[in-house]
Design brief:
Layout: H1 2-6, H2 10-27, H3 30-46, H4 50-66
C-alpha cells in the first residue's frame, strides 16, 4: 500500500491497505491490523480527510498500546 501511495496511486493504495487489514483480522494479527489502519490514516491525510485520518490513527494507536507498543 505504501509504495502505491507514494506514487500517488491512491485507489490502488486503498485497495491494498483494506486487503491487508482484512487478512490481518482474519488471521488474528493485531499488529498487522494496526499497521493497515496507520497506512489508511496516512492515505486519508494525503487525500485531504484530516478527520478520517485522525480516527484511523487513533484506532491504530489504541491497538498498538493494547499490544504494549509505544
Amino acid at each position: 500500500a505504501w509504495a502505491h501511495m507514494t506514487l500517488g496511486r491512491y485507489d490502488s493504495a486503498a485497495a491494498a491497505a483494506h486487503a491487508a487489514r482484512a487478512r490481518a483480522e482474519r488471521t488474528g494479527n493485531r499488529a498487522g491490523v494496526a499497521r493497515a489502519l496507520s497506512n489508511l490514516g496516512s492515505l486519508a491525510q494525503r487525500r485531504g480527510d484530516p478527520h478520517g485520518a485522525v480516527a484511523l490513527f487513533e484506532e491504530a494507536l489504541a491497538l498498538q498500546r493494547a499490544l504494549g507498543v509505544d
